[in-house]
């Protein structure tokens, strides 16, 4: 599928109708999506109504918006009017339907985008693998025997496969950046709470954010502008770059480190303090807030939860409040320390994941010489950044014909525009870039998505 901005330009000019773009998209999803186990619901009726509205605006000479006629999907925790918001769980499959769209969905609709599908995720966004008991394990389009990452794996997979030009996910500890790295897409975790969270099923309010997946930086900047209401400046002073050292130089693929050093060979190497403690505190805060959120449902029917999710939520619900308060106090001091340490730099370079996508049949990765569960530890490099609330953009190294691998570009608070400009420079130099998967015919059979 073409990039979002290319589709929108064609629709606005009348070269193609939004309805035709949509019907082609629906046909492609029907033909290719099922084996990926990435789509949970296809919203055919709604999408056709939205596309028809765009075509009517074009016909009357009214600008239908920046994203006119562009199809997209959302992780299955965004409110969609008329549908239950399941957050990837069967517990809420029959919940009362949402009365209105999530604010992010409403902003995209106002910009002319057409919502086509809801997308697979780890139950309640608790994991880095998109292993879902109800909908299956989302497959990586570059190698269907491998994970797509999570918890926004469905959102990453449909974009990587070319089924949709962009999608929305959520990122609490790396749930956008991890699947972006493993599927070769761009993925943004914005400055904490900068993009609208209204109508998004929460996981851990201290860290929750939403962010887009795209295959081009131009699309990423445009969608961020629509969602944030900010302008992404195209020009500015030369960015000051630093490389993150210490734990960020460990448990990384040699090609990630080589790329970072080639991008900024003279940039200073900064070591953030207490990375292990920061990650432990992030785990604790996440567990406490997640456990508290689901305490009542766990007490009512714990067996209804995915066992892998249930045990961690119960453990979080049992943590003492003073331990949570201690972790939050540490976080406040840690954030101030990191901001002071990095104050002279606009972009920090780090790996996004420690490795390429692990296999579905053995979802483990090597950390410090030991095999550990991917579902818990693929976020080893993203979680400490989330802890600070800083914006972080996952970008795919240009690796045609090989499994994807990504970097993080980390910015100042509200420094997304700097990240975008720097990423566009790397994209123009051919250092980063999304490549389509090869060998799609090898995808194994799966369960078709449900049309709504």
From TrEMBL:
Q: Where is the Amidase domain?
A: 21-235, 322-419
Q: Which residues form the signal peptide?
A: none
Record-given protein name = Amidase
- Write one Pfam family the protein is assigned to: Amidase
**What InterPro entries does UniProt report for this protein, alphabetically?**
Amidase, Amidase_dom, AS_sf, Carboxybiuret_hydro_AtzE
């Amino acid at each position: 599928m073409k990039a979002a901005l290319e589709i929108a330009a064609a629709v606005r000019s009348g070269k193609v109708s939004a309805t035709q773009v949509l019907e082609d998209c629906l046909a492609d999803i029907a033909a290719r999506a099922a084996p990926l186990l990435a789509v949970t619901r296809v919203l055919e009726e709604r999408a056709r109504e939205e596309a028809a509205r765009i075509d009517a605006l074009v016909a009357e000479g009214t600008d239908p918006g920046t994203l006119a006629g562009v199809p997209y999907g959302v992780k299955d925790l965004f409110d969609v009017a008329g549908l239950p918001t399941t957050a990837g769980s069967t517990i809420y499959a029959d919940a009362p339907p949402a009365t209105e769209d999530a604010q992010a969905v409403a902003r995209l609709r106002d910009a002319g985008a057409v919502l086509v599908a809801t997308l697979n995720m780890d139950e309640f966004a608790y994991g880095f693998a998109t292993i879902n008991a109800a909908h299956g394990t989302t497959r990586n389009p570059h190698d269907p025997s491998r994970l797509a990452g999570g918890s926004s794996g469905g959102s990453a997979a449909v974009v990587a496969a070319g089924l949709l030009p962009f999608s929305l996910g959520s990122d609490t500890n790396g749930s956008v950046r991890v699947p972006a790295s493993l599927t070769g897409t761009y993925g943004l975790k914005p400055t904490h709470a900068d993009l609208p969270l209204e109508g998004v099923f929460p996981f851990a309010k201290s860290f929750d954010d939403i962010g887009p997946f795209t295959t081009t930086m131009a699309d990423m900047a445009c969608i961020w502008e629509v969602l944030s209401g900010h302008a992404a400046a195209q020009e500015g002073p030369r960015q000051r770059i630093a490389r993150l050292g210490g734990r960020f130089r460990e448990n990384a693929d040699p090609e990630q480190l080589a790329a970072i050093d080639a991008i900024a060979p003279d940039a200073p190497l900064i070591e953030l303090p207490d990375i292990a403690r920061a990650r432990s505190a992030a785990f604790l805060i996440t567990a406490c807030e997640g456990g508290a959120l689901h305490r009542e449902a766990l007490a009512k029917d714990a067996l209804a939860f995915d066992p892998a999710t249930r045990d961690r939520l119960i453990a979080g619900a049992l943590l003492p409040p003073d331990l949570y308060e201690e972790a939050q106090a540490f976080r406040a001091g840690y954030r101030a320390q990191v901001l002071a340490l990095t104050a002279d730099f606009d972009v920090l370079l780090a790996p996004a994941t420690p490795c390429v996508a692990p296999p579905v049949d053995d979802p483990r990765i090597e950390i410090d010489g030991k095999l550990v569960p991917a579902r818990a530890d693929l976020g080893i490099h993203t979680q400490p950044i989330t802890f600070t609330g800083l914006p972080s953009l996952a970008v795919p190294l240009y690796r045609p014909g090989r499994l994807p691998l990504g970097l993080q570009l980390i910015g100042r608070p509200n420094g997304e525009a700097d990240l975008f400009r720097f990423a566009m420079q790397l994209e123009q130099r051919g250092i980063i870039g999304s490549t389509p998967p090869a060998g799609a015919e090898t995808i194994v059979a799966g369960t078709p998505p449900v049309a709504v």
